[in-house]
Structures are given as structure tokens and as C-alpha cells.
Amino acid sequence: MPGDLIQNYLSDLAVRLPGPARTRMAILAEINDSLTDAVEAHTAQGLTPSEAAEAAVTDFGDPIAIGAEFAPVIAAGQAHRYGIGFLVTGPIVGGLWLTTAALMPTPHLSLTVVIAAVVLAVVLAASVPCAVFAVAATGRASRWLVTRPTAALRAVTITAMGAIVGDASLLLLLVTQATTLPGSLATLPAALASTASLTRLALASHSTRQLVLTRATVT
Amino acid sequence: MRAETLKGHLDGLLLAVLADGPRHGYGIIEALRSGSGGRFDLPKGTIYPALHRLEQAGLVRGDWSNQTGRRRRTYHLTPAGLRHLSAERTTWREFSAGVTALLEGTPCPAT
User: Fold this and answer.
1) A27 phi and psi, to 5 degrees?
2) 3-state SS class at B59
3) Strand B60-65's sheet: what is its strand order?
4) ipTM exceeding the 0.90 mark
5) pLDDT per residue over B43-97, tens digit each?
6) What is the distance between the alpha carbons of residues A50 and B24, in angstroms, rounded to a whole number?
7) Which residues of chain B make contact with A38, given a CB cutoff of 8 A?
8) What's the pTM?
């Protein structure tokens, strides 16, 4: 069946495309449209539907090669989106924690606080430049900023791991503060900040897994 | 012509094809083939990753439409794409003049 040939080709290509399902579905829809055009053109030239479908998938190229060419493009899009996500959520999460610290009824500078501050400074120093680079290298600046496709992926993975370490440190600090100095925290800001960090911790963990999976497909 | 030969020029060719107006993927493939007198008959699939890369760079824009009862993605050149195409044309003229002079053994016109 001609339709089966096209569907088999798309299925073959689908397993070779990395990235989020929505991105892959959009690419496959576009290619399906192109193959349909090709089948119509071949049929108009006198081929049978089966011959036309066969010619369309042959002309389109080896799904392994097409998948390999798409992988760095999808990876760049993924690095761009995740990079923007971290750059947008960073100030929000940071702002909530700063508010929590500012509203502490009895500020207390302990060794734990100092260690957490050092960890956060290191995390910020590594994560922010990496996120900025990932966004720049995969967006409009990619016209001038030529980098290896894996560089942006690696950079945004560092940012994601930094977010995990940063959020985990802040949550640990909160628990330590709440247990050693009960009543030292304003409840609402602390609840909001910890919810934001827990949410980002989950998203950053998910992002890291996705980025590692995508990285494996980019040569 | 082998796809490998065209690899470094594909972005410029795609921009040039879109300079004539918006096209969907298959239209771009056909324009490349007919515009080159059948010389550039690439594996059709290779243009899609290139189009998506150009879109990420802001040089083309792809929009989905559903005018004929079928979802189609149409690409058009952005103002930045038009400027980039102009720069590509200049670079190509200089490059081709140099290569032609060397391969044909003719004097290279001064730039």
C-alpha cells in the first residue's frame, strides 16, 4: 500500500529524531506534507500510486542521514528553550529567596549560611554565562557565533545541573534554619520560595535527562 | 551534482529561492531543481534541517497554514535573511571569480 510506504518511512525517521515529542511531531507533519506533494507529482507524471510512493521516499533520502542532519538542529532549539527557561526562572526563584531572607524576623549568620552562599556564588558564576552562551549560540546570534552543535547543549546542561545544586542547597538551608532556629523564618515567603525551588528542581532534573538523551544523538 | 558539493552553499541557495516569494518545502525543492536546470537534485530531505537552522538564525520564518484542508508550512525570507542573502551574493561573486580564474587559467578581475 502506498500509504504504508510513507508511514513506514516516517516511523523509521521518527525513531531517529531526538528532542521533545511536540518538536518531532511538527517535523514529521511537515515531511509527511512534502512526501504527499512528491507522490502527487510522481502520479501526475504517470507512475502508479505504489511507484510514486516508492519514488517519493527514495528521493527524500536515507532516514538515518536525515535524522542525523536534524539532530543538531533539534538540539539547538532545545538548548535555546531551556536556556531561556533558566534565565527567566533564575531571577524569580532568586528574588523569592532574597525576599525570604530579607523578611527574617531574626537574621542569623551561621556557618551553614556562609557555605550555602559560597555554593550559590559558584553556581551562579558557572550557570548564568553558560545559559547566556547557549541562548546566544542557538538563536539569532548563530549567524555570527559559529560553534559546535554540542557546545550549547553542554553549556545548558551545566546550567541545569547548577540549578539542581543551587535549589537543593537553598532547600537544605531552609530545612536547617527551620529546625535549628524555629520561628526565624516568615512562613509565606519561605513557603513560596521553597515551592519555586522544588518546582525548578523537578524541571531541571527532567531537562538534564532530556539534554543527555539528545546529546547522545548528536555527532 | 553531489549533495556534498552543494553543502556549503545550501543556505545561500535556499535564501535565494525564497527571495522570489514564500514557498512550502516541496516548492523550495522544485525551485532549486528547476532553477539550476536540474543540476541541483539533492536528496529532498536535506533541505528541511537547513530550513529549520535558518529559521533558528532568524533568516527565514516558517508559518503553518491550513488553506487546502492540509496542514502546510510555508517559509518566507525575513529582512535579516534578505540582508544575509545580499552578503552571500557578494561573497559568492568574489569566490567564484577567484576559482574561475585559477581553474580556467584566466586573469582574475580586480576587486
Assistant:
1) -65, -45
2) coil
3) B23-24, B72-77, B60-65
4) no
5) 889 999 999 999 999 999 999 988 777 889 999 999 999 999 999 999 999 988 8
6) 24
7) 26, 44
8) 0.86
Q: How far apart are CA B107 and CA B79, in angstroms?
A: 36
Contact B46 A61 (CB under 8 A): yes
Cell of A108: 542569623
B57 min Cα distance to partner chain A (Å): 4
Minimum-distance CB partner of A34 among B25, B52, B57: B25
| Whether B7 contacts chain A with CB within 8 A | no
Is residue A196 a contact partner of residue A92, using CB atoms and an 8 Å limit?
A: yes
Cell numbers linked to B78: 525575513
Total H helices, total E strands in chain A: 7, 0
Residue A83 near residue A156 (C-beta atoms within 8 A): yes
Q: Do A61 and B43 touch (CB under 8 A)?
A: yes
- Own/partner pairs, A128-131, CB within 8 angstroms, 24+ separation: A128/A87, A128/A90, A128/A159, A130/A155, A130/A156, A130/A158, A130/A159, A130/A162, A131/A83, A131/A86, A131/A87, A131/A90, A131/A155, A131/A156, A131/A159
Distance in angstroms (rounded) separating the CA atoms of residues B81 and A73: 18
